[in-house]
Amino acid sequence: MNRDAYRRILIFRVEESRLVLPRPHLPSLLFKHVSPIISCTFASNPCRIQFASQEIVVFRSDLIKKICRHSINAITVDSIPSRYARSVLSQAHLCPLPQHITPILPDFSHSLRLHPLPDLLITADRFETFNEKVVGSETIVSNPGSFARSNYTFHVYYPCQQRIEASQIPMTDD
C-alpha cells in the first residue's frame, strides 16, 4: 500500500474575529507553484472530510473565548470544554452565537450546520487542548490547542478505533 496516498497537508485560512463566517478557501492561484511540490489541499473554513464511513469537520476559529464572554451563566475553566461541546452539538451549528456577535453570511449559513452530527469535530482554537464526548452523542469534540503555545503538542486521530491520542514533538537540546 502506498502510504503517501494518505498523507496530505490541509491548510486553512485563519479567521479574524471581526470577519464574517464561513471563510472561503484560499485561491489556488496563490499556490500554483507549491501544489506540485507537496501534496496539499487549500481548504475552506469549515472543512468537511469524508474518511471511509466517518465524517470529520475541522473548524478554525477562536470561538471559545467569545462564547465564554457572552455566556449568561458563570463558567469555570474546568467546565469550558464540556459546555462548549454541548452548546455546539445541541444546536448542531458551529457558531451558536447571535448575528450581532459573530456575523454569518446568510447564503452560506448551511455550511456551518452540523446535521447529521459528524464523528469528529476538530475546533482549532487557541484555547487549551481538550477532548470531549457529550453524553447521548457519538461525536468527539477535540481541540488540539495552539501548536506553538502548548510545547508542540498535537492530536492523532485513529479512525478505526475512534480514538484521539495526544502527541508531542520532543524538544532536543543542541
UniProtKB/TrEMBL annotation:
This is DNA polymerase II subunit 2. Keywords: DNA replication, DNA-binding, Nucleus. Coiled coil: none annotated. Transmembrane segments: none annotated. Belongs to the DNA polymerase epsilon subunit B family. GO terms for cellular component: epsilon DNA polymerase complex. Its main location: nucleus. One of its GO terms (molecular function) is DNA binding. It is found in: Nucleus. It comes from Caenorhabditis tropicalis. Residues 19-131 form the DNA polymerase alpha/delta/epsilon subunit B domain.
